[in-house]
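Tokenised fold entry reproduced for absentees:

. . .
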Amino acid sequence: MAQADTEGLQRAPQVCSHCKSIKKGCDKKLPSCSQCIKRRAVCRYGEPEDARHSGDRLTKSESPLGRSERLASTWTSIPRSMRAKLCPTVRLSLLLMNSLSDVLPSNFESKDSAASATSNSVVSSQIRHIIERDGKYIDDVVGRYFQGVHHWLPIISKKRFRDRFAHFQVTPTADFALLLLLMRLIIQHPSLDPDTDQDREVLYLASKTLFAQVQAFVPSSLFLVQVGVMLATYEHAHGMIEAAYVTIGTSARMACALGLHTKPCSMEMQGTDAWLDDEEALATWWGLMICDRAIGCDTQMHGRPLATRPIRDDDYLPLEPEFLDGSRRDMMDPTFRYFVSAISLPGVGSFGREAQATYLLDRVRMAIEAGQTSENTLYPLGCELQNLLGTVMEQVAGRWGIYCGATQTLISALYTLHQTAAMQQDIDNNPRYRETVKVALKTMTRMVIDIAYAFNMEVGTINLDILAPATQHIVCCAQQHILTAQDFNDRKWLEDFNQLRKMLSYFNQRWIVAGMELHLLNENFEMSMALQI
């Protein structure tokens, strides 16, 4: 109850909540004190210690714990069916708000609590919350990553990762936490259930947002480069080619800032942590260059520069994942490490062959860009590509999940080379070379169709997780197969076409870009059939 003072004015028995929160002297005047009038704040007396606002700003009188509980309830109180109706941006905001609920200290007044809420700890806790929100656990995510994606994207040393993960449990860092989040994202399969697939989309948006946020306060690191390679690979494999182009460019800049573009093979004692770190950096740089070329092969990227420098003849081959994982000890002395240009070298592993295939693809690209498209230039290069492809196919020996990256890169390079040759104005003056080019294009088309037949026969025994997202590149050969057909009612032609569609449809269960190429394939089929009528 208010009481009268000596001046006859009504005053409150205690200071208002606003003056108490900002620690200013309150004259207790009624109905509003001078401080609240001056600051245009709501003046309240005798309120319990709950949430109060000064204008639009939340004051410190609100309990941070109460905020945590309200943030958590914001997410959990909305039914899953209702969350699915929200746009991805709103769902992302809710997810990030909810992930802070486990981060905010219960008492901001405590110096110890305030000091503990560092950027690294906050982001790490957020990411742990995001990963585990749908019942997944970090150990499970890591296991699935190394059992699947690591087969075709071996840029992380499993041995060093285990050491770093143990250290992360004690001293969390934002860049390593982000690496865990990208592992969670890239193992996620698309779903026919719209609600579940929206969760995947929101997980991607959260990864993209936190990647940009972490770059603002964490210096460039190998972890962030690896995150960028994985994110660009994911974007490319799900048809987000423009986003992939920007992401791989960002990763390339960070890699150059770290000196990865000039990294040789390690001169440290083999098997040591320093040796593993050097070799992992070299593998990451190769992963970045391979991803950059894969993105550059997309027709939408025609005329755009690559994010990374040209591959040099004396660039060292990367080690295979079993060496980086510590499961093999028969290492070479650095003196006997081989250059990527040694394409006739026998016994090169899957990652090394993909590096060599990318090196030859780079040479095709540079020759075309330089206008060096004569028979004297393209024919020898085509022979090198064919020889390496023959070697790779012998090494595959009918096994799925190995050398798939090298195989698709070589097919793409051969197709690009011979298509370019076929469009040269002077090719009609050289019937022998023209026939060679025609046969080569037909052979590549037939090879892709044969791969589709073999894949579809064994599809029940193949683990999609160990296959690279490379099937979209067969669309070039499929287009050629459709456009060169003489009789669209031919039973053999229709069966070939259906095998291509069947393989793309199956890959669409893992990578959305395969479904996009399937749609394009069907459109071309319908157009070709219409022209025949």
Q: What stands out?
A: Confidence is low (pLDDT under 50) at residues 1-8, 48-73. The two ends are 93 Å apart (CA to CA).
